[in-house]
Amino acid sequence: MSQSNKAILEKANTAIMRGDNEGFLSHCTDDTIWRFVGDKTLRGKEAVRQWMTATYTEPPKFMVENLIAEEDFVTALGKITMKDEEGRDVQYSYCDVWRFRGGKIIELKAFVIKSEEQEGRE
């Protein structure tokens, strides 16, 4: 089960990098919950859709350093680069803990911070 969840997440993330938000969302349950620790919680696929539309004005770029799967969970560690409001690339370090139910993403707990390398350039 854990390896199939890992493959599902890889496929979903590939959709995001192609700018295919709906392709990503097809891997989520309707009642998915995304928690951005220290920030906000999104409840339901529609809330995630709206957030993705507003946040991913251009597809983000992921560099996954580790992908660890066990039972219903997949943990991804890496870096993500996204455009800010001024159109500049900003890099973040992240740790995402994804929970699956029936082969779909039911929950995300995301720890995201601006990368130190980025902060040194400001």
TrEMBL record:
The lineage of its organism: Bacteria, Pseudomonadati, Bacteroidota, Cytophagia, Cytophagales. The keyword Isomerase applies. InterPro entries: NTF2-like_dom_sf, SnoaL-like. This is Ketosteroid isomerase-related protein. Pfam families: SnoaL_2. Keywords: Isomerase. SUPFAM superfamilies: NTF2-like. Residues 12-107 form the SnoaL-like domain. GO terms for molecular function: isomerase activity. It comes from Ohtaekwangia koreensis.
